[in-house]
């Protein structure tokens, strides 16, 4: 105050122009928005659906708006205390609102980019999980069949020593019947697994065009795969029939063969020996055919997986 009057002495702020201080405040607010957007976290992963995308963008907007409010209020307060109030000028709320908008603009580009990436990554995770589950479902019946067939052959199989025992024929026929039941169950479960796999893909791919592209590849491969699997099952059926024929032949001619020291048997009936050799050749032929066909199945699966993966990648990148 002037010592001779009661009037307040004019401050230097009252004589200075506003624009340098306002420009500095705007730059600070914009820089603060950019800086906060670099380190702001807490994004939500999307899943490709409308609801999931809405959540991502709500979170993205909150990552922009909340820091902008804090930065705008803080810089506006600083502007008011350093310049506006000492200069006796009004408009602190107006300039604070502008500073909030500028801070939001500074935070928006990177925050929006993070939101888009979170939406894409979440959708990618969902698609890849669905594809992985679909492949598990598609092969589950086959995997279970071979695993149980191996365990059955290892623990309840029939060999020369088994057939020579008192209840050997009973165990052998039980094993053969178990094989038949396993094969029948595998064939039933195969169709269910393929349907489940298709449903998993259809439910995961949100975009209609992308979904049709993926399912088109799956359906085209399924036609070929079903035909190949019919050959696989047929080969197993022949092996079961041959096992049954061999057991019946050995049981009906118990006096014409005996176990040897190498885990096999010796046969003293030429006709029976010819029949056993023919069964052995037929069994080897069935196994060879099975292996060749299953290699075709594996090749087809690899090609189908590559086609579906490419379609999924297109769906992700959109």
TrEMBL record:
Transmembrane segments: 21-44, 64-83, 95-113
Highest taxon above the source species: Bacteria
Keyword Transmembrane recorded: yes
UniProt keyword list: Membrane, Transmembrane, Transmembrane helix
Protein name in UniProt: Uncharacterized protein
Protein source organism: Brevundimonas alba
């Amino acid at each position: 105050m002037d010592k001779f009057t009661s009037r307040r002495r004019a401050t230097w702020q009252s004589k200075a122009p506003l624009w340098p201080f306002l420009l500095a405040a705007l730059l600070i607010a914009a820089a603060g928005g950019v800086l906060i957007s670099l380190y702001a976290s807490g994004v939500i992963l999307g899943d490709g659906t409308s609801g999931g995308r809405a959540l991502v963008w709500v979170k993205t907007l909150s990552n922009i708006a909340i820091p902008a409010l804090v930065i705008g209020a803080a810089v506006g307060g600083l502007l008011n205390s350093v310049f506006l109030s000492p200069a006796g000028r009004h408009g602190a709320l107006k300039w604070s609102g502008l500073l909030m908008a500028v801070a939001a603009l500074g935070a928006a580009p990177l925050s929006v980019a993070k939101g888009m990436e979170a939406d894409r990554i979440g959708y990618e995770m969902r698609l890849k999980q669905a594809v992985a589950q679909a492949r598990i479902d598609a092969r589950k019946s086959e995997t279970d069949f071979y695993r149980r067939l191996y365990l059955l052959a290892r623990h309840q199989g029939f060999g020369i020593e088994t057939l020579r025992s008192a209840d050997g024929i009973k165990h052998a026929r039980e094993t053969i019947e178990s094989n038949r039941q396993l094969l029948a169950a595998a064939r039933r479960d195969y169709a269910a697994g393929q349907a489940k796999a298709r449903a998993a893909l259809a439910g995961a791919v949100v975009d209609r065009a992308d979904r049709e592209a993926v399912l088109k590849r799956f359906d085209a491969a399924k036609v070929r795969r079903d035909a190949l699997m019919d050959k696989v099952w047929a080969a197993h059926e022949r092996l079961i029939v041959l096992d049954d024929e061999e057991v019946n032949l050995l049981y009906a001619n118990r006096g014409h063969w005996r176990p040897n020291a190498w885990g096999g048997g010796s046969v003293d009936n030429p006709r029976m020996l010819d029949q056993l050799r023919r069964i052995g050749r037929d069994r080897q032929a069935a196994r060879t055919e099975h292996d060749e066909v299953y290699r075709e199945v594996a090749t087809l699966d690899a090609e189908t997986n590559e086609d579906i993966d490419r379609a999924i990648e297109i769906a992700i990148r959109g």
